[in-house]
Write the C-alpha cells for this entry.
Amino acid sequence: MTSSETVTPEPRRLTVTTRNGPVSVEVRGAGPPLLLLAGLGSRARLWGELPALLARTFRVLAPDNRGVGGSRGGAPFTLAGAAADAAAVLEQCEAAPAGVLGVSMGGLIASHLAAAYPTHVARLVVASCAPRLTPSHRRVLRFFELALSRLAPSEAAEMLMAFAFAPSFADRYPGFVDQAARLWTLDPEDLPGALAQIAHLREGWDLTPLLATIACPTLVLAGALDPLVPAAATRELAAVIPSARYRELPEAAHSVLAEGGVALLQEITQFLHG
C-alpha cells in the first residue's frame, strides 16, 4: 500500500423510518454527503467497490430501493415515493443538501428528488435514464419482467449482463462482468419488490415538467452503445434540465459508470466537489 492510498472503514447499516416504510442505508466515509441511488431491483450491494472509492472524500449513503433488501414492505413503489424516501434519508442522516448520483431507475429517482426537494440536492449526476416512457422502453421493461419471472435469479442476472456492458468492455474484463452478475442476482425474497418496480414503470412516466425546474448543477451521462436506454433518450433528458452538462461515452453501454473507468470517476468526483 502506498502512502496515497486511503483505507475506508466497513460500512455501517442503519434503518430510516419514512412515511412509506423502512429504508435500509449503508453509510461509510466522512466529508461532504453523497447519496447513491441505484437501478431496478437494486440493493446497496450493487455498487460493488464504488462506495469505498467515493468514501475516500465523501460521506456516502447508499440505500436499498423500496421493495428490496432492508427496504422491503411499506407502501408500493413509485418514483415519487422513492424520491420521498431519499429525502427522508438525507434529513434523518443530517446530510442535506447532498451530492446525488443516480443511475438508470436511480437516475429517475434522483431527478425527481432534485425537482421536488430542491433544498436537499446540492449537485446532481444522473446516468442512463430517460425522461419519459416510450414504446421501446416499455418493451425493455417487459423483457426484464419475463427474465425475472421465468428464470432463476442467477440465470436472469447472467442474461442481463449481455445488455449491461458493451461487447468490447465485456471481452476485456470478463471477471468484472461475472462479479456484476453476482451482485445483481436477486435474493428470492426481493423478486416481488423488483416486479412491483417494473409494474410501476410500465404504467408510464413523464418527468419533463419536473426536469425543467431543476436548479442545481447537473451532469448527465450516457453510453452511446446503450441498448436498454438509448443515448438519444438520455440526451433528451439533459436538454430539458436548465444548464445541464451532457457527456456521452462513445464505447460504453448501460453501465456507463463502470465502463468509463478511473477517468470518468475522477470527472464525477471533481464535479460533485464543485
Remarks:
- The first strand starts at residue 12 and ends at 18.
- The domain at 12-273 is CATH 3.40.50.1820 (Rossmann fold).
